[in-house]
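call fold(seq) -> tokens
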Amino acid sequence: MLAYSLKKLLQLVITTIGVVTLVFFAMRLIPGDAASAMAGDTLSGAALEHLRDQMGLNEPLLVQFWDFVRGLLVFDLGRTMTTNLPVSELLKNAAPITLLISLATIVFAIAIAIPLGTMAAFMAHKGQKTLDNLITGLAMIIDLMPSFWTALVFLLIFSLTLGWFPASGTISWDDPYSVMLRLALPILVLSLGQVAILARMTRTAVLEVLSEDYVRTARAMGWSELRVLFRHALKNAALPIVTVVGLSFGNLLNGTVIVEAIFTVPGVGTVLINGINSRDYQLVQVLMIFYALLFVFINFATDILYRALDPRVKF
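ret:
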């Protein structure tokens, strides 16, 4: 396990270096430069050249890259070009909100989807198709609904019509109840899509192992169906489910950008959209790396969990 983890950690370091390098140089492949994009038609000549000096764009490319990497290592992410605020402070305030939404969504989705998918597989295995078809069909319908449409419908019904949840407002960590109310709808909207995906994947994975010899042996030993189903079948079907959970968490980061914008949640997605709209080159660059590295770390955790669940997994 230790050797496997060290190899995966080395792979993580190499991937991280690749991600930072790719994002840095990809931003500089955009036609024109960041100063021209930010200035638009408002600056030219000496003023534009002064802006380039401020942004460090007149330095050699390798010098710019080294300065950027050195800043990342000490968490000195520079300042926004529009408000002159430290990017690290914006990220420190916004990242906990986005991570809380993502983690709560995944936990909520797992708690609902895995039992549903497991029971659907059990019903299908027993030839009782009604409940299986109902769960599968409902999951497919939910999966077809785009998150932005679901968010707008929920906002209209639960916030504007019924008034159960606030549609906007600040988030104060001193009042956990207000935080829960403020983030309930975004979490619910994002959870629907994750429940649909996980339930279908769980059903498929569990259904494949219900006919295996060890499941029949467990039944022959007189164990209850629930024990056989959740302790043996679900455990041995866990690897593909873990894969989907890891990928879903990564894809969930994309969904948070849209949902945060609709519900005006001050998370990383909202900061990213504001940075794009204001052409804030430094801010957008850092947030792109944040999302990319978060996805990389999630894949690393998924790989480690593979080995914990099944020691036969090789590097």
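The two ends are 10 Å apart (CA to CA).
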